Amino acid sequence: MSPPLIELTIDGGKVSVPEGTTVFDAARLNSIRIPTLCHQQNEIPVGVCRVCVVDVGGRVLTASCVRPVESGMVVSTASDKVRNARRTLVELLMSDHPSPCARQQQSGDCELEVLARAEGVEKPRFARRATSRGRDDSSVAIAVDHDACILCDRCIRGCDDIRHNDVLGRMGKGYRTGIAFDQNLPMGNSSCVSCGECMISCPTGALTNKFHVGTSLRTGEPASPETLHELPVFAGVSGTFLELNRGAIVVRHFRAGEIICREGEFGSTAFYMIDGRAQVSINTQMGHVKTEGGARGFLSKLSSRLARGAEDHRDEESARRTIPIDGPADLPLEKPVAELGPADLFGEMTCMSFYPRSATVRAVIDVTALEMLRNVLDILQRNKNFRGQIEENYRRRALDSHLRSVPVFSGLTTSFIDHLRDKVDLVRYSPGQLICRQGEPADSFYLVRIGFVKVWQAHPGGEMIFAYLGRGGYFGEIGLLGGGLRTASCTALDHVEVVRIAAEDFHLMLEKFPEIRSSLQTVATDRQRENRERLAFVESTPLQDFLAQGLMEAQSLLILDLERCTRCDACVRACADAHDGVTRLIREGLRFDKYLVATSCRQCRDPLCMVGCPVGSIRRRNSLEVIIEDWCIGCGLCAKNCPYGNINMHPFPVQIADADSPGRTRAIMKQKATSCDLCTEHAEPSCVYACPHDAAHRVDPRKFFGALLAQSKRD
Amino acid sequence: MLLDRTQRQWMIATAILLVIATAIYIPYALNSPQGPRGGSAIGLSFGIAGFALMIFAGLLGARKKVPVWRVGRAQTWMRGHLWLGLVSLPIILFHAGFHMRGTLTMVLMILFFIVVASGVFGAALQIYIPRRITVEVPMETIYEQIGHIRAQLREEAEQLATAACGSLDGTIVIGAAPGGDASASAVGVGVEVSEDARDLLREFYLRRMRPFVEDPARSHSPLGDSPQASGMFEELRLRLPVELHDTLKDLESICEEERQLTCQARLHRVLHAWLLVHVPLSYALLALAAVHAVMALRF
Fold it and tell me: Which fold has domain A407-539?
């Protein structure tokens, strides 16, 4: 039975609408337009913006979107009184609105600004808000500008009532009121699944699509939402969002033999294999930069060449037998080749954190793959269905090789790994997100699968960084083996994924494999000792300046006495002469008193150069000296990351197969990272040896500056 | 390079060498019937010894060309060059008997004096100038990079001035003052500056600062002098609203860096300019000395 009709008058015209209809809908059904900002047809009206005020003859004006019609009601939607009230409301909203907002700039359809123009509001008479409510750019796909938010709640209703995601809500009071994700987390760290409903609902530029991420790839066929939804892994991914990001995911076809991506290249996309088979490999010439020649005679010139670990064994060569790459499997060191197939995802770190490609992928047979940008991959990573498949693939194919790639776990049996297969969790963390906190109960052991983790302790003077852990690194063993509490905090440096092994499974593993227990205990003891030594060192170093300049980080410094140095650059020329024309020293850097700490590897205790290496080929010995492993692919990221510019790329000619002339080879230049080797072939570094003015010295900073620091402290 | 206690051994060795040479020369000069001559046995010995020392001193340049050859530390070579080169002068004078006979020997002697004098002068500069650079140029950079850094500073100054004043040629820059009207310029978020203040800063920049940053050495601007520049900026700070003080501070820093780079370039040129005299004349001296030796021995 249909509800009875109610008769009322709107702007002088008689209308009949069903009982329960709001004044706003009654007007709309009779083609009378009432402006509004907080109300949408697909959402429950809340009447917060009050822009839809009408005069129903009462003491005050009423919000038409929430006011039900009454029999005989006389409604005026455009009287002077109503228009003045509406104009004032719009003016008040505009006074706090950053005009033009992002949406107005992008598409010129910010509902508030369009309405203000229609109402003749040009410059609000009211004062602006004194403080900014800020921006949130943590989400890969959506930009949040809290200053542009008019608190209409459309996004909250879209998220909670329409999508039932229940991520969005309100926070704060008064001027500080705003929208919040989960418990007021940054959007990128929240449980938001990037469905895009909030963005579509927003009337202003408060929630906008991040077009700058890139919405179109130049090569490949753009994949429509309909095509993508035909693939099982895309079930549940928001069609709205795929539509908004059309072009950010494309279908690529590669013929057999074609290169899909090449090691060392910088990129911004990930690949998801739909069909075919591909080979993933590292084609770099294995070897490290070795300088030699000086020992053969005093007139022989030094030269650098590539030497393999087998012929030039260095102290503490890596015990790793696999090379970590940005893909579902690690590569064996002896023959760095593996195969990829349907449902494999690779290039995640390149896509999410813009690291260089870690390996070359070549189609073995014809391959069809989806190539996607960061915003699409982020959506997929938040989709349960897609995540489920990727995790299943990992458990099935990569868990055992990943665990065994860590020397400590190389003795695990297949049966135990099978036991772990369904027990481990893959957990993702956004940049800056805390993985575990110092002092909390230790409940898990973690193995890094993707990204880099910073291990640190909080101290009164700031945080003390203990280590950066990349793929294959692990943490959490000290707490589990010791007193049950975390001894340090761990934070994701970039987009990180870790394999989490629960405490009970970890203890079961130690019970079954006593040799792993003893290895882990040794590692834990060593780590604790190193951390203690480091802390003791910091506490005993008195000068803040010394710390601030990073000199404390160094184990060996090249210093120039500026009162002796005649700026003749003999040191730089000597370094270049010693290393095939590539200098590893630049006569510029930090100053401490009359000394210039020249740019040359400091063998830092906090080696930022190691963050981001796509194949984990840069590490340090126990002596803290940097060592670059044979499988360095020459991408140059470590050189870029070193804050002191102390890692150089050394070019070498390498013979590769000539694609134009089958069966023949041609020379190309490839690079290997290298840092100051202190000219270990000689008794004294070349730079120091060649200084005619006794100005250049290689020193241990603690010994050299010790007296100076003590003197400064006394003064 | 410093003449400190680390040079003591060289100093003593040089003094001993000089004393021995003098001890030989005085009786030889007093007892020679025709006076000391280069062609006599002792005179020839002094000549050979002096020429050998000159050659050793001249080899420093060659040593520097092969810095990684393990043929002795460059520091040792430099000290040898300095002290043995210095002692070669009295030995050659002993060889010549303090006379200049003939055009060639006269030219040789003049060259020798110039080379030694320029060397001593250079050594003095190498003691004095590095200290001055260290003290006066805390923002010292690599000399070859000065031009590049200046270009960056010019660009930075233009950007700062444009951000604070709008267009520097007087027209309004679209987007320079978001949300503001034509008579105001946004300096920071939500901060607006009056037209008068903007004009004052613009005039200062165009008339004073831009010519200075474009050519600090030739502009003869008061900004080239630290106290005067400080006074000018202090006066501007009093006349301009507080919203512009950060911009002023940045512009003042740019002027300071320009002054330091100018100072560094000047001192660097002074520090190395003497080599333009010392090095070519040294080679000329060695060549002529060789000619002199051949001619004297043959004819």
Answer: Jelly Rolls (2.60.120)
Is A562's CB within 8 Å of B130's CB?
yes
Closest residue to A577, CB basis, from B67, B78, B268:
B67
State the Cα–Cα distance between residues A300 and A297, nearest whole angstrom. 5
Q: Per the CB < 8 Å rule, is A574 touching B6?
A: no
Asked if A306 and A296 touch (Cβ cutoff 8 Å), the reply is no
User: Which residues of chain A are in CATH 3.10.20.740 domains?
Assistant: 5-78
Q: Closest chain B residue to A694 measured between Cα atoms?
A: B75
10 Å CB burial of residue B296 (0-12, 13-18, 19+) is: middle
Q: How far is CA B61 from the centre of its chain?
A: 18
Question: Virtual CA dihedral for A611, A308, A557, A690, nearest 10 degrees?
Answer: -140
The tens digit of pLDDT for each residue in A156-209 reads: 998 888 878 889 998 888 888 889 998 888 888 788 877 788 888 899 999 988
CATH 3.30.70.20 in chain A: give the residue spans: 102-213
Contact check, Cβ <8 Å, A567/B133: yes
Minimum-distance CB partner of B2 among A299, A563, A568: A563
Residue showing tokens 């790639």 = A405
Are the C-beta atoms of residues A320 and A618 closer than 8 Å to each other? no
CA of A610: how far to CAs of A449, A452, A604, A623, A637, in Å?
A: 16, 9, 11, 16, 9
Residue A489 token pair:
């905090």
Confidence check on the interface: ipTM exceeds 0.90, yes or no: no
Residues 104-163 of B with CB under 8 A from A: 126, 129-131, 133-134, 138, 141-143
Q: Chain B residues with CB inside 8 Å of A682's CB?
A: 70
> What DSSP line would sit under B263-298, residue for residue?
HHHHHHHHHHHTHHHHHHHHHHHHHHHHHHHHHHHH
CA separation, residue A575 to residues A292, A335, A677 (Å):
13, 35, 11
Nearest Cα of chain B lies from the Cα of A637 at a distance, in angstroms, of 25
**Spatial contact of A619 and A318, defined as CB atoms under 8 Å apart:** yes
The gap from C-alpha B211 to its chain's centroid, in whole angstroms, comes to: 26
Q: In chain A, which segments carry CATH 2.60.120.10?
A: 407-539
- Distance CA(A249)–CA(A251), nearest Å, equals 7
Strand partners, A323: A331
Cβ atoms of A325 and A359 within 8 Å: the answer is yes
Give me the average pLDDT of each 10-residue run along chain B (299 residues): 77 94 93 85 93 93 84 91 93 90 90 95 93 90 90 92 78 41 41 78 91 85 89 91 89 93 94 93 94 85
> Looking at beta carbons, which residues of chain B come within 8 Å of A570?
64, 67, 74
CB atoms within 10 A of CB A216: 13
| Token digits of residue A176 | 């500080």
Chain B interface, best mutation among A296, A561, A564, by max B CB count within 10 A: A564
CB contact under 8 A, B69 and A691: no
Task: Write out the residues of chain A at the interface with chain B, using a CB-CB cutoff of 8 A.
Answer: 98-99, 123, 128, 132, 294, 298-299, 301-302, 562-568, 570, 573-574, 577-578, 586-588, 591, 594, 682, 684, 686, 689-695
A279 DSSP β-pair partners: A339, A362
| Nearest neighbour of A574 by CB, restricted to B2, B68, B272 | B68
d(CA A597, nearest CA chain B) in Å: 13
Q: Which residues of A touch B178 (CB under 8 A)?
A: 98
Q: Judge: domain A5-78, CATH 3.10.20.740.
A: yes
Say if the Cβ atoms of B131 and A132 lie within 8 Å.
Answer: no
Class of the A102-213 domain?
alpha beta
Partner residues linked to A651 by β-bridges: A671
> Against a cut of 0.90, is the pTM above it?
no
A158: left (phi over 0), alpha (psi -120 to 50) or beta: alpha
